[in-house]
Kinesin light chain (Cylindrotheca closterium), 433 residues
Amino acid sequence: MGDNDQGLIEELLEQVHVYNVNGNHEKANEVLERMLVIQRKELMEDDDSPLAEASILSSIGRNLLLLGDFNNALEKFNKVLAIRLEKQGEKNLETADAYKYIGAVLKRLANNEEAEEMYRKALAIKLAILPSDHMEVTDLYDSVAITLERQGKLSESTKLQKLVLATRLNMHGEDHPTVVQSYIGIASLLSGQDRMDDALKMVDKAIGICVRLQQQLGGEDDDDDDIDLLVLTLQHKARLLEENGNFEASVKLLNEILTMQKEKLGEIHPLTEEAYNDLADAYSRQGIPEEGINALSKILEIRRHLLGDNHPRTKELRFHLEVLKRRKMAQTFNEQGQQVMHAQSDLDEAIQHFQAALDVYNDLYITLPKDAAVVYENISTVKVEQGFLQDGITASAEALKIRRRQQGDDHTETKGRMEAHRSLLKQLLENRI
């Protein structure tokens, strides 16, 4: 490769670094793809050229992994592995890294058995080359433990997690980022065994380490990695709090994380977007659409600034936000109908509100959500009160059909609807007799 090309490659590498530091992984990948074209044009006969290509492909794959484009990331890492095996063989640290990254993608795709297999291949290679207490070996034990946990193999996972923690404590002492990771991993195992109090205590220990690490830096020149680790640990605690039924404390913590990210990074940043997204997801799980819509609106503004109005991710979010707003509209129509129904005033007006809600749901969905079942149940109640028993049975049947499809026959709400529907059918039969 000529000096000019080498100079260009170095310049492009600097651009990649800047984009990645600022969280703009898509722009970084555009530059990496340009580097890949240059690499393929130059020195195709050189034995080192495929290895340089593998390095670029690996960088692209890592950025795709960060962007959540897992299938394309997997494709890139499989190409990297093929090159590494051909040029460097199985017993090579870079080959081990290729296996590791494939495992990381498979883990994100919830293919935990295959992810475990890839991690174990990487682990076997590194154990043959590096000391057993080497950081890279310990990290792979940690990754294997996570895949075991996700397969429900809690005993095996716990054994590995304890080994990892002991190794990290021996190497670094307690106040170290990798020890934080171990405490979080053990907390996850404890929560999976319904030992929520113990899990929260473990996460609090991890948070304490993160705070001490920041204090050791003096506060002014905070290390970004330590900041990110504190955020990740707080996010984990927020999830545990929600799982434990303490939604108010969970949301309070998520708002604190959002404030931290905004103060550190500003409003327009991918990690600030992530903090808003965590809030939106939490509100969505709790059925609080207003707050979820507010958070998603903030995310939309961030994406418009970072990616532009016409970017696929911006368009996707805009569509999703519109769906949520219309779902909220349907819920409002249903609530208005319920108010009229409970007031026993104009039941025809209540039906109009309920029908307006159904019109929104039918316009939005091919397969109606369970919220629509509630509307049909309200219509059934009103129709029966008006003396239109057959119409009430028809609406009840629609509600039952939705609940069976969305929740299954064994769900408590489905069983309740089945019982109510049988009661209406029995009433109809008695009237005919």
